Amino acid sequence: MGGTRDWDASTYDRVSAPQQRWAEGVIDRLRLRGDETVLDAGCGTGRVTQLLLDRLPRGRVIAVDGSAAMVAEARELLDPVRTEVVQADLTELELGAPVDAVFSNAVFHWIDDHARLFSVLAAALADGGRIEAQCGGRGNVARFYGAVAGVVSAGGFPELDGFEPTHFPGPDETAELLSAAGFEAIDCRLTPRPTRPPEPREFVRTVCIGPHLDRLPAGRRDALLDAVMDRLGADPELDYVRLDISARKRAARA
Ligand SMILES: C[S@@+](CC[C@H](N)C(=O)[O-])C[C@H]1O[C@@H](n2cnc3c(N)ncnc32)[C@H](O)[C@@H]1O
Predict the structure, then answer these.
(1) What is the distance in A from the centroid of ligand 1 to the CA of 127?
(2) What is residue 2's predicted lDDT score, i.e. its pLDDT?
(3) CA nearest 209: which of 147, 154, 137, 139?
(4) Which of 53, 65, 121, 168 has most ligand 1 atoms within 8 Å of its beta carbon, as the pocket-test mutant?
(5) How many CA atoms lie within 13 A of 198 on its CB side?
(6) Chunked in runs of 10, what are the mean pLDDT values of the chain (254 residues)?
(7) How many angstroms is it from 5 CA to the middle of ligand 1?
(8) Cβ contact 85:110 at 8 Å
(9) Nearest C-alpha neighbor of 199 from the set 231, 169, 235, 225
(10) How far apart are CA 209 and CA 197, in angstroms?
(11) Hey, how many other C-beta atoms are within 10 angstroms of the C-beta on 162?
(12) What percent of the chain has pLDDT over 70?
């Protein structure tokens, strides 16, 4: 899946107001004192990481992302004294010292193996440390995926037959995986967040359809995007559904 694929970081930074808005609620849930060390799992361009840093005047953030372009933007933006920006695949992450909390926004649905992801994040956390995260959940942007499927089944893009770059889980399966990875006090829930992005074509190109475009030769990418945008219509509403995840790492038994 999309772990180490690169992103158009500067366009993402410009069009990702919806993701930034959703992130604010997730950061609130961390209820930070201000002196913690927090892992931002999938920091993107660092815009959301900066909101997290604003709540940590005496703390630090370890900001991790798999995309070189995203990491470069985040390094430009974030205070190097209070932030360590690391380029790594989250499913391979190993930190030198445990963090107090894990935060993540709009990332986990790009990762296929959530059992592995949650065990890596549990290993990164101190005992009793919290994870507060949000990602695409069951049914997320179904109209967009329906439009892509319609275009692909009409022919002309055989590279995309059966291609599914995202994984949108439900709350029950996620809670089970969190428990198996060593978390307790688990709360997972789905919330519909229908969204009209301000620059729909650039938003869909940058946020939704990147992995599909990556599979096509450069000369055929616009044809796919045009065909999908035709099906979505002018000023489309994207039927976002977010999966909110809250849990605490179980303390090891003495
Ligand atoms: C939609 S962006 C979200 C960025 C930021 N958290 C925000 O809210 O704006 C998704 C990010 O997840 C990163 N990502 C996806 N899979 C990853 C993985 N396996 N390891 C590290 N980063 C990953 C991508 O590179 C991208 O920067």
Answers:
(1) 25
(2) 42
(3) 147
(4) 65
(5) 8
(6) 73 92 97 98 97 98 97 97 97 96 98 98 97 98 97 94 94 98 98 95 96 96 97 96 98 75
(7) 10
(8) no
(9) 235
(10) 14
(11) 5
(12) 98
Quick one: pLDDT at residue 4? 65
Q: Whole-angstrom Cα distance, residue 161 to residue 168?
A: 19
Q: Residues enclosing ligand 1, CB less than 6 A?
A: 2-3, 7, 16, 19, 23, 42-44, 48, 65-67, 70, 89-91, 105-107, 110-111
Please state the pTM of the whole predicted model. 0.96
Residues sharing a CB contact under 8 Å with residue 214, sequence separation 6 or more, in sequence order = 5
pLDDT at position 254, please? 61
Distance from Cα 67 to the centre of ligand 1, integer Å: 8
CA of 44 to the centre of ligand 1 (A): 5
Predicted confidence at residue 101, as pLDDT, reads 98
Query: What is the CATH code of the structural domain delimited by 2-140+166-196+238-249?
Result: 3.40.50.150
Which residues, 6+ apart, have CB-to-CB distance to 145 below 8 Å? Answer: none
Strand order in the sheet with 238-249: 83-87, 60-65, 37-41, 99-105, 125-136, 238-249, 183-195
Q: Are 15 and 202 in contact (CB under 8 A)?
A: yes
Task: Give nearest CA residue, ligand 1 atom 10.
Answer: 107
